[in-house]
Amino acid sequence: MNKDNDDELLPRVDNNGKVIGVVKRGEAHCGTRILHPVVHLHLFNSKGELYLQLRPEWKPIQPNKWDTACGGHIEYGEEVEEALKREVSEELGLTSFLPKSITKYVFEGKIDKEFVHVFMAVYDGEVKPSATELAGGRFFSKQEIQEKLGTGFFTPNFEEEYNAFLKDIVINPM
After folding, report:
1. Which CATH class is domain 9-166?
2. What does the pLDDT look like over 96-113, one tens digit per residue?
């Protein structure tokens, strides 16, 4: 069975995202709500569809729910853009994409608290979801997403980002 590395070192940050220390992943995800940074990539295609990943059942947080195309922790000593490129390569198999920063905010879940760096990109190539990190992935139309909002199909974090930043994004066909 797969498992996250609870000993992975993550930056501990303040409410502005400034590094103030270090914390182990396991400690940050056990109810302490120690603020640590993550990256999210929302991946659109030129038809305006949004790629989402299916979280595997072995994940301790929000298993078997559809989520942001790519999301991952920034490792201690790593820059935001480095983490984004690493996570997108690991989770989606993409090495060539043009990310655009959307926003930063603090997300509080039931057992964790994250400083989220949100990015988006438009990409029409092949997406190869990692078989070890994800349970799958696919593009969703805005109508499909809106029909499933509030049903427990998506993670609360994705729904929050969709409603706050994504639902009004219009992608012009290439």
Report:
1. alpha beta
2. 999 999 999 999 988 889
